[in-house]
Specification:
By secondary structure, the chain is α/β, with parallel strands linked by helices. The protein folds into two domains: 220 residues, 3-Layer(bba) Sandwich (FAD/NAD(P)-binding domain); 160 residues, D-Amino Acid Oxidase, Chain A, domain 2 (2-Layer Sandwich). Helix content is 30%, strand content 24%. It has eleven helices and 18 strands. Helix 2 runs parallel beside helix 10, helix 3 packs across helix 4 and helix 4 crosses helix 7. The longest helix is centred in the first third of the chain and has 25 residues. The chain is globular. It comes from Roseospirillum parvum.
Length: 459
């Protein structure tokens, strides 16, 4: 099973992503390839946040669970993102969601976003792993003065739908409390979010799941899937797993042809992987940090259509802090294409922080996140087969919502939830549906990417 919009180099499980996170994280636990035939009650496909969170919850409930991963735990997007545990999950406004799903379901969705952020911190505390946590909130920064009106509207919507405490900062307040930049014209502060080393979360979940009794198998991509006598038979290069139920937790790496033989693949054409380019600088000295009065620790996203994430990472022993900046990473995903997008991100860095233009870049990588045609996450089971569950499409906030969704699915399968969909808000409780003209969605993505870049001024 390999049909995917991602470039083969990006999904090659033998390639080790050159991230800063890998240098600042413990190694993942042993996860040998599946060898021979074995059985379990629940098979989980994918060892990112969603799959590992599901496996941990299932194992703690006494359910026999096996995780199959093409590479190793945390290899995919879980180890390649910008490390922001934050609000979000839909590209529709809260008012638009309320018109579609009702005000109460929209409040539930906002409440779940906050629960998901809290859950990440609780899991780290319960199982004793260090996230390198930073900040007590997040900032949405206006990249032009006119964008402040949209931030004010969002602040009011969060208040109506039960969001966290917020504050609207002027450019002067932002410069005093967090950082100064000619590209920052004020900000909306939203409490509760935080930055982290995202790979530490994946590794911590993997260690905890394994300790609870889950079996983890890396180097074990699913190459075929069939039904036999009411059970699922998942074949890997070296083994075969028979399971009563399956959880699909592959997000942006979901192959278009993933699913049991003999039926239309249920996820075909229903998702779109989007690439983020991340660069990390050499450590900035305290004197260099002062050039932009960067004293804040909260993670930042700006208001561009192809937004920019910014973080000044935790200090080293000498007080140096590396700058992380992440933004659009193109649509191809090849190694040859990455140099182009690395240079573009360096130019965006210089635009936002001119005193740091030309600073040495120590790490550069790309990672995918996932959009669904509904522009919101999709969590549930197949309408005609309640033994196949999925949680896909977190619209760029998989750190929090992916972790929460994996646990939510596991609570259903272990019998701990009040009902099959009782804990999942209507905004998320949906079957993936194909994009219009799904076979052409890659071309459509390239056209949309170019248009949005033009509206952002090609920076």
């Amino acid at each position: 099973m390999a049909a995917s919009l991602l470039h083969p180099e990006l999904r090659d499980p033998t390639r080790r992503p050159p991230t800063w996170w890998a240098e600042d994280s413990p190694p993942p636990p042993p996860a040998p390839p599946l060898d021979g035939a074995t059985n379990c009650r629940v098979a989980v496909i994918g060892a990112g946040y969603t799959g590992l969170s599901a496996a941990l919850e299932l194992a703690r409930a006494g359910v026999e669970v096996v995780v199959l991963e093409a590479a190793w735990p945390g290899w995919g997007a879980s180890g390649r993102n910008s490390g922001m545990c934050c609000l979000g999950g839909s590209f529709r406004s809260l008012d638009a969601l309320a018109r579609r799903h009702g005000a109460e379901e929209t409040r539930r969705f906002v409440r779940v976003q906050q629960e998901a952020i809290a859950l990440v911190g609780e899991l780290a505390e319960t199982h004793g792993f260090d996230l390198a946590r930073q900040g007590a909130g997040e900032l949405a920064v206006a990249h032009r003065p006119a964008a402040l009106a949209g931030l004010r509207d969002h602040q009011e919507a969060l208040a109506r739908f039960g969001g966290p405490p917020t504050a609207l900062w002027s450019a002067e307040e932002l410069a005093e409390r967090h950082h100064a930049s000619p590209d920052s014209h004020g900000a909306l502060f939203m409490a509760g979010s935080f930055g982290l080393n995202p790979l530490r979360l994946a590794v911590g979940l993997a260690i905890a799941a394994r300790a609870a009794g889950a079996r983890l198998h890396g180097g074990s991509p699913v190459v075929s899937w069939r039904r036999e006598a009411g059970r699922h038979i998942l074949t890997t290069p070296e083994g075969e797993l028979r399971a009563d139920q399956v959880v699909v937790a592959t997000n942006a790496f979901t192959p278009d042809d993933l699913g049991p033989a003999g039926r239309r693949p249920p996820f075909r054409g229903a998702y779109l992987p989007v690439l983020t380019q991340v660069i990390v600088s050499r450590p900035l000295s305290p004197t260099e940090q002062a050039a932009h009065r960067f004293v804040g620790t909260e993670p930042i996203s700006d208001t561009r259509r192809l937004l920019t994430d910014v973080r000044l990472l935790p200090p080293d022993a000498a007080g140096g802090r590396r700058l992380l900046i992440a933004g659009p990473g193109g649509t191809r995903g090849s190694e040859a294409d990455m140099a182009h997008w690395r240079d573009r991100m360096a130019r965006r860095l210089a635009l936002k922080f001119p005193a740091w233009a030309g600073i040495g870049i120590s790490h550069a990588w790309r990672g995918p996140w996932c959009i669904t045609s509904r522009l919101s996450p999709t969590v549930g089971c197949l309408p005609d087969d309640s033994s196949i569950w999925f949680a896909i499409g977190f619209q760029g906030v998989g750190v929090s919502l992916g972790t929460w969704s994996g646990r939510a699915v596991a609570r259903v399968l272990s019998g701990r939830a009040a009902g099959p969909m009782a804990e999942i808000p209507a905004v998320m409780a949906a079957m993936p549906r194909p994009f219009p003209l799904a076979a052409l969605r890659g071309w459509g993505q390239r056209m949309a990417h170019g248009l949005l870049r033009a509206r952002d001024g090609f920076v």
